[in-house]
Amino acid sequence: MNIAYLEGAKARISNVPVLINLVSRRVRQLNSGQRPLVKPDFPNMERLDIALKEIAEGKLTAEFAPVEGAPSAAGEAFKRLFND
């Protein structure tokens, strides 16, 4: 595993469990035949390193969906602002 790519990916996605899930899903996609979004450094570059490089370069991102029934921080702030 390339430590520079790992540190770059952690700088973009600081939540480690989310980073692990994103890398895992992307490695599975690469293993099933999807093309890399970045140019590999060398022909036999590990798929793990390719996924980390994609994240570090901003080609892959994570989007968080709101949880049903759980109030968002913005929604709570709005309620406090106007209901007090």
Characterize the structure shown:
It is a single chain. This protein is mainly alpha-helical. The protein has one domain: Eukaryotic RPB6 RNA polymerase subunit (Alpha-Beta Complex), CATH 3.90.940. The chain is built from 4 helices and no strands. Helix 1 packs across helix 3 and helix 2 crosses helix 3. The radius of gyration is 17 Å and the shape is elongated.
What is the name of the CATH topology? Eukaryotic RPB6 RNA polymerase subunit
- Overall strand count: 0
Residues in β-strands, percent:
under 5%
> Which class do the helix and strand fractions yield?
mainly alpha
What is Rg?
A: 17 Å
CATH class: Alpha Beta
| Spatial separation of the terminal alpha carbons | 53 Å
Helices and strands, in order, run as HHHH
Q: Mean pLDDT, as a whole number?
A: 87
- The figure for the number of domains is 1
Task: Give me the CATH architecture, please.
Answer: Alpha-Beta Complex
Largest sheet report: none
Number of helices: 4
Q: What is the general shape?
A: elongated
The helix fraction, in percent, is 55-70%
Task: Provide the low-confidence segments as ranges.
Answer: none
What would the keywords be for this entry?
84 residues; mainly alpha; Eukaryotic RPB6 RNA polymerase subunit; 56% helix
Short summary:
With 84 residues, this protein is mainly alpha-helical.
What's the structural blueprint in terms of helices and strands?
Blueprint: H1 3-12, H2 16-31, H3 47-56, H4 73-83
